[in-house]
Amino acid sequence: MHTPVYFVSLGPGDPELITLKGLKILQQANTVFYPATQSKQGEVVSRAATILRALEIPESVLCPFILPMSKDRSHAQQAYDSVYEEVVKQHDGEKRLVIVAEGDAGFYSSIHYIMDRLNDAGIPSERIAGVPAFIAAGALGGIHVVKQEEKLLVLPGIVTGEELEQYLGSGLTVVIMKLSQCGDVISAFIKGHAGYQYHYFENVGTEKEYYTDKREEIACGKFPYFSLLLIKP
Ligand code: SAH
Q: What residue owns the CA closest to ligand 1's atom 9?
């Protein structure tokens, strides 16, 4: 038997937005590694765990890896390195080892680092596609993300006002992920550019999901980690 290591996409938050293929792999898993964070008070929080429990994946196979909140990427790297080492230890070609990620596991997902290392070590892996948050956001807002000849640009939260002016000025629809990294830029941009359409989303697919297209509200907002903005010219 040559069972690969599976990377399963969980979707943005609504447990029903996982694929059937992803769910079947989770149901047969021996170990499911999932990301979690630890608050300053020591409380472990994990959107992935909430989804996995809603899907009734048995507690006995769940194995968290704690990602530090700090901006220093080397800390996160260490967490991924330990998952990699644990996977290598457990991998025997028969056990079903699964690593999960929110949204689509191949879209701005740091677990690519683990997949790259497995690849380098010659351990086969397979990734199961999933629904990325911005696609689920479009459905929540009743927005056609792009239509006909429109072009889409997705940005990972690193952007300046001048760049946004340039992109939107040339007719692109823009999606900005990781908004918490560029709150001030976005706030100033919205105040100075009343002519565009802004669609803001928070915690899509969860009990706390929120959508607004009110410019004033978005402009003064503080953005949590799970938030994104769609701007149309
Ligand atoms: N793999 C994920 C993206 C991970 S990057 C995907 O396919 O969507 C993390 C960023 O994704 C967050 O900062 C936020 O911008 C966005 N995001 C992920 N889940 C979200 C959700 N449920 N609601 C709103 N934004 C979300």
A: 178
Q: Determine the structural domain holding residue 104 and report its residue range.
A: 5-128
- Could you tell me the distance, in angstroms and rounded to a whole number, from the CA of residue 1 to the centre of ligand 1? 35
Q: Is 108 in the pocket of ligand 1 (CB under 6 A)?
A: yes
How much is the pTM?
0.95
| pLDDT tens string 145-188 | 999 999 999 999 999 999 999 999 999 999 999 999 999 999 99
Give the domain-ending residue among 95, 128, 161. Answer: 128
Say if residue 1's pLDDT is above 70: no
138 Cβ below 6 A of ligand 1: no
Helix axes 161-169 and 183-192, enclosed angle (nearest 10): 50
Cα 21 to its chain centre, rounded Å, is: 19
Q: How far is the CA of 12 from the centre of ligand 1 (A)?
A: 7
Same-domain check for residues 19 and 92: yes
Same domain, 178 and 107: no
Does residue 227 line the site of ligand 1, with CB under 6 A? yes
pLDDT tens per residue, range 108-127: 999 999 999 999 999 999 99
**Count of structural domains within the chain:** 2
Same domain, 101 and 160: no
